[in-house]
UniProtKB/TrEMBL annotation:
UniProt GO cellular component terms: nuclear telomere cap complex
SMART domains for this protein: Telo_bind (SM00976)
Major subcellular location class: nucleus
Source organism: Arachis hypogaea
Protein name: Protection of telomeres protein 1b
UniProt keyword annotation of DNA-binding present: yes
Amino acid sequence: MASRSGMKCFPIKDVLALLSQRVSVVAVILEYSFPKTTRGTDYCCVLRIVDQSHHETGMAVNLFALTADKLPHVAEAGDVIHLCNVLVRSFDGEYNLVYSKAFSSFALYQGKDSNDLVPYQVSSKYQRTNEDRICIHELRKWRVDFQPNDGRHEFRLFKEIKEGDHVNLACKILHFGEVAKDEWFIYVWDGTDAPPNTIRSKLEDEMNCPLPLQLESLAWPRDLYCTFPTVGSILRITFDGSIDKSHFHLLDNVKLKWIKLVNMRLEVHAGLWRGLFTPFTKFRYTPAEDNLILTRKRFSEERISRRFEINYLGCVPVPSTVTVVTVDCHCAPHVTLMEALTNNQVTAKFKCVVRVVAALPCQPEMLRSPAGIYRMRLTLEDATARIHAYVFAKDGETLFGGYPDTDSLSKKLNKLLGVTEGGATSDKRHPPWVSVCLESYYLNKDDTWGTRHFRVSSTKVAEEA
């Protein structure tokens, strides 16, 4: 098989014996990354490719171009790439291919088996022969039953993640978009609950530097988050500054699909989990019948379908004894905060298991107005969301057991907030899981959803707490 330069199109296995030579290869894209800037003025991206001859670990391809637009715009892992005139190199004991902006060329084809051999992207120097067409057709047929070997990859569930780790994730992309100018997020979910984080903020900072309700500078509209799952954590993924954004539109090709992400960095910001898409993070080919994905889908679907079974506690944590809910809310089933947020009734009553991560004011002597009326704002979170909930008047009387002295009030508030004895000035807290009754209400009847708020009611800090 020959390319325009008379160069044979090699199987990857044979390329391993051609160090420092230029070759042509037709292969399936096993992994790909977004373009990034180099230390100079170029752009580069990294692919990992496989074919019938070499599909256990594949081979890395480093591509360089003057602009990001001249690099491959991979629509989806699993597509086919035809690389022409690329150099075989060795680095750190592994063979790889290097695509030169000066003399190499490429074409991208859909990976699915079909008779359509029209590439969806070609470089300026690319030409194809009849032999190349045959090679592409045969590779597509092989890909139909190809299952990547994930043996060296451990794909963690969200419930297993740890701050600072670089992990592989198998998850569903729920949404992708630009929240504000140059502020892009991917929203992913696998049906499990991410672990609660230590709250690293001083209570007195809540007035001037409140804990955010979300990582985004602007919240998404209600009609969007009402499409999200109401159980399990939704992980926000943002992007390293060195990653070029010109290819982001290609994420539309994988929206609402289960995918695999390799080498994702995990961070915690203001107590909220955040994934960081670095230059070393890659999308990995995920077949429709991938065994791991099928297992994850079955688990998440079961968790949702069994959500309201009487004895099924898989969607909410077991609450501590710090609080009790009164009789009028006691029999209500526990719901997640996302279920409360997306409930189709503007005014409703819910019972939730949450952590109280902030209070405003936080000084016990400030919890009541000069007229002696309770008024405060609590920041509540669970695995699905973080919200503000207000405590007013008689609800405060119920919560704190009337009008205790300042010392007793301080102890009760500290129990809610996870402040240990003598730790009032600490910037590290571990709030307990507590059961609370929430009621939703609105401020303006002409804009009920836009002015919807929550308040804590029918909830009491237990005396023995």
